[in-house]
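Long-time lurker. I teach an intro course on protein structure, and each term I like to show students one example going from raw sequence to a predicted 3D structure in token notation. This year I'd like something fresh instead of my usual example. Would anyone be willing to generate the tokens for the chain below so I can use it in lecture? Attribution to the forum is fine with me.
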Amino acid sequence: MSHADLDTFRAAVAASGAQALAGTAGRVASASAPGRLDVMGGIADYSGSLVLQWPIAERTRVTMARHARPRLRLASRGSSGDVRAVEVPAEPVFDPRVSYEELRRLFAESARHWAAYPAGVVAVLVREEGLSLTGGLDLVIESAVPEGKGVSSSAALEAATLASLARLERLHLEPRQAALLCQRAENLVAGAACGVMDQMAVIAGRRGHLLELLCQPAEHLGDLPLPRGLALFGIDSGVRHAVSGSDYTAVRIGAFMGYRIIAELAQLPVRAGDRAGHVRVDDTRWHGYLANIGTAGFQEFDAHVPNTLNGSAFLKRYGGTTDPVTTIDGKRCYAVWTPTAHPIYEHERVQEFAQLLRAAGADPGTEAPPREIGERLGALMYASHASYSRCGLGSEGTDLLVQLAREAGPAAGIYGAKITGGGSGGTVALLASPAAAATVRDIAGEYARRTGLSPVIFSGSSDGVRHAGPDA
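-- Reply from a regular --
Happy to contribute to a lecture. Here you go:
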């Protein structure tokens, strides 16, 4: 395709969005998925923690059409109306003999890297589910889920892409299977070492409920409605967040280093590592998850887990970690103790949070829970936020928002706040009284006054993936 043809496609999408595909000769399908607010659990997901996730009102829609020409065209129209478009050859995406590493290189350049997320989903369905595709695909992406805000725009895009392609090709995928496939696309094609909580939340979430997920690897335990008298809000810090960022990756590596060290101390059988620094541990005690060690069990080992450790020294002594999606830099020094402790303590915080909601009679028809329950829930959120900061995943913006929430306090209906998702910026989740919406706006306004930024406020909720027509 010439640049003029791509410009024509871009202009058509700018003018009419998904309607640009209305005249396509092949089949057309559309699906949408929400973003999510990480209320508790966050980065502990890859260590097997329980997490609680809230599907937000903002959604991403993907409309897809098949055609005969061997090209993959993608156009994304944001809420402002701006459109970015890219074309890549369909053959490497559709050919299962092309490795994930080769695909990652194909999408590595910054101008097309955003396209790795939806194209990666297509590639994973071809390689993992045996989907046979010929010809090409056009994708039109329309999203109200803002990027880089820590509300999982990438998972919403992946889930909507998978759902529209599954409908187009008449595939049936269970929510858990779909989430793991989307995670695989993000890990192996986009190169972001995310856990699976985001994908599960945006696929299986229910409006007005917290999705309760045990990330071992993706066990949906149920959905917790918020008790009457509690509400969830998000305030964007304006500091861009990225799961692929070095801080997130370094903390993840540190956690897996810690698990490998504890496995050695516990004398668990270890299979020899590969050249990439990965090993296998035969773990019938904790099943490979730090979260299962527990705070009491951690006391047996914590004195032997170093605060920091050089990558080359770790590889020489332990051979590698059990994490297949990260690679240790031998020249880098990693924090180990704090990233190891975080998921162990976070798992217990999330468990208590969920138990308190149930004890409060988490039913939309019950009386509002006592204020002290709201305050205890908030205290757990503040503790989670502090642990993020100790891991090095805080930021001045998110810390200021949490500080402003604390200063407003329960008297103003603000019970708790914490950074969300991968940290290092993004959005802060707030637990509050439904009547505190004005206070939330005041917090955002004071934040704007102090920083010069214009934070976005998230409120409301919506269901997970939906198949529908043009207005999905």
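Some talking points for your students: The longest strand covers residues 50-67. The CA atoms of residues 232 and 431 lie 5 Å apart.
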